Amino acid sequence: MGWGLAGDVVVLTDEQEIREQEEDGGEIQAVESDASGAFDDLEALQLIRVQGRDKQGRRIVRVVGKFLHAAIIDAQRLQRFVVLKLARFELESFVIVYFHTCVQSGENSPGVKALHQIHAALPAAVRQKLEIVYFVHPGIRSRLILATLGRIFLSDGLYWKLHYVSRVEFLRDYIKDDQLEVPEFVEEHDGELENNPLVDYGICVDPLHAELKAHDTRFPSTSGAFL
Q1: DSSP 18-56
Q2: Contact at 8 Å (CB) between 10 and 3?
Q3: How far is CA 188 from the centre of its chain?
Q4: Which residues face 97 on adjacent strands?
Q5: Beta strands of 124-161 (E only): which ranges?
Q6: What's the Cα-to-Cα distance from 23 to each of 14, 29, 90, 115, 122, rounded to whole Å?
Q7: CA-based nearest residue to 140, from 93, 71, 200, 92
Q8: Residue 41 in this model has a pLDDT that exceeds 70
Q9: Are the C-beta atoms of residues 45 and 67 closer than 8 Å to each other?
């Protein structure tokens, strides 16, 4: 016993489900056992922090893209760190608030493929408990890449959980102020966007993202497209 068939659909038997759960648990324990002090530098960056709860009672995981130094942080090490931080959510629903504010292509963005690999490395139970990803301050480039390459590299389970939020004030429709710490530079950029609303429609370029540089006309490769 291991696999069962129902018509043309392959279903997991209890034996296989138990084996997968044990494998997921083993991977988490392996990361935890090797994590004592190993990620102190990444913790210090405050890239990923568990905070309060949204209005539906789900735990909030805050991710600040600007704090990620993608050019110098090993992708595999980052993946292990994320798995460790999110391992606690096997039995608890959670949401991610990702601040894309001031993220520069190639400097703070790991790329679409890396996001896919990190998501795939999470235990199945954790992936299922992730209910939504609030993508705050997305730029035109990010929207285009996720609308095209995102459909290829991101699983449907993750792609359809993305929710774009152009202003912090709109985020408050889902999360109360006292449940989420918003970095000061994010609030400042939000105020600048209020004075330049055409950025939302792609008529004006968001200067902080610097996404359409005149000297860089290269189209990102599918293997490492930066957001």
Answers
A1: HHHHHHHHHHHHHHHHT-TTTTHHHHHHT-EEEEEE-TT
A2: yes
A3: 22
A4: 62, 134
A5: 130-136
A6: 14, 10, 13, 22, 11
A7: 200
A8: yes
A9: yes
For 74-124, what is each residue's pLDDT tens digit? 888 999 999 999 999 999 999 999 999 988 776 777 777 888 888 889 999
Percentage, residues of the chain above pLDDT 90:
42
Helix, strand, or coil (residue 80): helix
Give Cβ neighbours of residue 77 (< 8 Å, ≥ 6 apart). Answer: 39, 42
Residue 48 has what pLDDT?
96
Q: What is the Cα 97 distance to its own chain's centre?
A: 8
Task: Collapse the DSSP code of 63 into the 3-class scheme (helix H, G, I; strand E, B; otherwise coil) and give the result.
Answer: strand
With cut-offs at 50, 70 and 90, classify the pLDDT of residue 180.
Answer: very high
Distance CA 127, CA 131 (A): 8
- Whole-model pTM: value is 0.73
Q: What is the rounded CA–CA span in Å between residue 30 and residue 93?
A: 23
Strand order in the sheet with 162-165: 48-53, 59-64, 94-99, 130-136, 162-165
Rounded Cα distance between 17 and 11, Å, is 10
Burial of 137 (C-beta count, 10 Å sphere; 0-12/13-18/19+): buried
One of 3.40.525.10, 3.40.50.1220, 1.25.40.10, 3.30.830.10 is the CATH number of 11-201, namely: 3.40.525.10
